[in-house]
Amino acid sequence: MDSVDSVFYTDRIGPSSNPLLDQLPSYQSLLYRRKSSATGSGTKRRGSSRTHSTSSWKWKGDRVEETPKTVSLERTVRELAKTMEEKRRDNEQRMKQDQDLSSWKKWRQHARRSLKRMKEDAVELLSRLELWRGDIHVIEGMFGTGILSYFSFLRFLVLLNFIIFLLMFGFVILPIVIAPHFSGNTTFNLYDGNECRYYPSTSRRGLVVFHQYITDVLSGTGFLEETYLFYGYYKVEAIHYPRITYNLPLAYVLVTVTYLFLSLIWIVKRSAAGFKRSLVQDEDRFQSFCNKIFAGWDFCITNETAARLKSSSLLYELKTDLEEERIKQKIADRTRKEKCRIYVLRLVLNLFVVAVLAACFYSIYRATVYSQKSQMNPPANFILDLIYEYLPSIVITLANFITPLMFTLIIQFEDYSPAFEIRFTLMRCVFMRLASIGVLLCSLWSQITSCSGSTCPCGYNHKLYPCWESRVGQEMYKLMIFDFIIIGAVTIFVEFPRKLIVTYCDCGLAKWWGQQEFAIPQNVLEIVYGQTICWIGTFYCPLLPAISTIKYFIVFYIKKMTLVKNCRPATRPFRASSSNFFFLVVLLIGLALACAPVIVSIAQISCSQACGPFVNYTTSWEVVPLSVSQLPDGLRTFLFALSSEAFAVSFFVITCLAMFYVIALAGAHKRVVNQLREQLEMEGRDKRFLIQKLCQAQVTCAISTAAAAQSHSVRESQDHRGSQNYDNPGGVFLVQPPVSATHV
Amino acid sequence: MGTTASQLPKDLLSEYQELTFLTKQEILLAHKRFSELVAKEERSSNSLRVPMEKILTMPELKSNPFRKRICHVFSTSDMKDGSLTFEDFLDLLSAFSDSATLEIKSHYAFRIFDFDDDGTLDCRDLENLVNCLTGETDDTRLTPEEMRQLINNILEESDIDKDGTVNLSEFQHVISRSPDFVSSFKIVL
């Protein structure tokens, strides 16, 4: 209503409150919508009656209030923004209306209501079982939603890993374990004298020094190699239960495919909502300030210092955004010469980045080769052996520690906008981290598939790697363990002392260093890296999901502790919405990266002849076509039809058509939205123009009637003239109450 | 918890469940927290008003810059002193709960941000709002120049009909496109 007023004021003419404006159709519809769409008519009226108790154009009594009832009936009472008293009245009224219904309808409504109540209770019960509900609530209260999203992401990964573990356990490990108890008969793949079938035992004989056990546990060799932990132990060909034969190799391949698929679907489902939002956001970039102002405050913050920090970070953000706007203006004004200089500089710096990455990758490759070679030598020194074992992990961690520092230094010279700077550095770090795993795997495979002769008799380097899958599994196991150790060690030996120094040392250097910031992107990268390892490793080391579940479980507590004790929130906050989407995108990249090596090793590289469930097959995938050919006729033809080219091509074409349709639809929607927006603006302008005209007309009308009254004043008395002035035709028109437009 | 549960009759509880977005546990917790604010002998009556100063001592509201506005918006008192009854308090928690709809949340947000209660967000409201967000002291305020730029930007983004103020439907339109709002407009006991 003030909107109308202020429009009016801009013209600086006419009376202070004009009932005419109430009659505008747009205002009437606004009034109507406000009442019907659950906008508290009661409190609103009270609220405004305080400030404008004298103005005549307010809500026009109870007549209007009755109208929206039919509309609001469709929603439940609690979705109305009214006070409890009014909601109760509404509810009673509905009950009364319900009494007129037939008994069948009544019963159905009652059943629906109680069913809903039951569902709510069940949901509540389930949500209480949710992991870390209290912890997450505390974190939310102290640091806001940005950091909260990191922790809920961690929880999601714990759950995902646990499900993968259950899959692996239920379909691969459990059948083997329970076979003896259910009079199952297990057939093993036995050594038959073939050279390729020879698998030397790795468990240590004779007197074992204690520290060798530590080495074994840390690197998965020795006694650990011959356990359920690694691929090589699953030598089972089939398990014969009294009724059925369980095809373990088939189960192994299918579970692998299933867990990759499950992860993909789950992540995509989780990110779908965020993706939609970020699309909307991208489309309307102009809304950034509104987001910050209207949705800027985290109402869940309960901590005094956190609230102060939030205020200051908001202030900082607003200032930088305003600054950024000015910078953008500056960029737009750049001369051609400056542009050239910047592009050349960027090119050079990007080349430098590529060079750094190449150097890192080469050193990872060298370290892997060296570490593999030295593992073949007889053990000499405990510490040295352990370092050799962990050399690739150490190099990867070092590279991942140094390069981000370098990238943040470099990006300052590249002169991007601040928001883009952060995103670009992050993408470089993501690439670095995930590609380093890829490089490690590539160098491992180059070792496995190259033999001293020209061709490998067993399809791979059997002499050095009798069971190469177990070896890859060990590498993944080591990476996982080392990552975990690093997370723990950094917390205890770097972040905690830093906190102590900053708190208890008054020197300038410590003050400048400041307290640790909880940098969400880096932390997310860390856990995504771990998850990628887990995805790759699960095929070679079926218990890896269990380890990673436990790891993330502990990491949650470590991170919570370090957050609460050591850290302060980042000065440049991460928005919950954008971060959720960003996490899942990075995770998807990780999944894609994990899929590639697993698929290649299942379908392309010949599997070990000496160990594992696929001894009788050249590649692991072969078990699937073989099992399909044993299926009944109808099912087999159906599956063959599914995998035929005809089906693939037609499926592809249909998908393409559907996609084009959706793209066209999206384009059309966009155009309609733009048109509507333009129309709205036009109408706003029209309205203002009309109001101006009207006011001018009013004023001229008033002047003319006043003049007329003056000319008659000879016969009229002084006080009568006032009332006459009030009763002029324009005046009557003005004080008329809003007409029936509201009674729709 | 057992003693507080007995204080809230079962039919009343289920009615509250029907009328708000809160679960049973949340209502019971709210009742417990609310009765902690009240002196012992007064606890029996349901229509008791707790003055705003007492409500604001709750940690969930204490550090919130909009605490006074929240109390004023949800208060049904005729004195306009921001005092809350238990039912007002439940209304407050319901609007701020996880399961409340965007429409409810944006409606109450609008009223909280509408400092002068006139039904629109004008320049003064926006200035108040920004000052609340950035902190009240002088050194945390934006300069007048920055403030002007900021308010112009906000109005440019949200004021669709270009009348110089943001009305409820414009506000709801803007909020519906702001992804963080639902997750941040939340108070859980």
Please describe the structure with a list of short key phrases separated by commas or semicolons:
heterodimer; A: 744 residues; mainly alpha; three-stranded antiparallel beta sheet; 27 helices; disordered N terminus; disordered C terminus; B: 189 residues; Recoverin, domain 1; 2 domains; two-stranded antiparallel sheet; 12 helices; 2 strands; 2% strand; globular
Strand content of chain B: under 5%
Helix content of chain B: 55-70%
- The tally of domains of chain B stands at 2
Could you describe the largest sheet of chain B, including whether it forms a barrel?
2 strands, antiparallel
Span from first to last CA of chain B? 15 Å
Instruction: Compute the number of strand runs of chain B.
Output: 2
Task: Find the count of extended strands of chain A (DSSP E, 2+ residues).
Answer: 5
Dominant shape of chain B: globular
Oligomer: heterodimer
N-to-C CA distance of chain A:
20 Å
Strand order of the largest sheet of chain B: 1-2
The helix/strand order of chain B is HHHHHHHHEHHEHH
GO molecular function, one term (chain A): mechanosensitive monoatomic ion channel activity
Transmembrane segments (chain A): 156-178, 250-268, 343-365, 390-413, 476-494, 581-605, 646-668
Main location (chain A): membrane
Subcellular location (chain A): Membrane
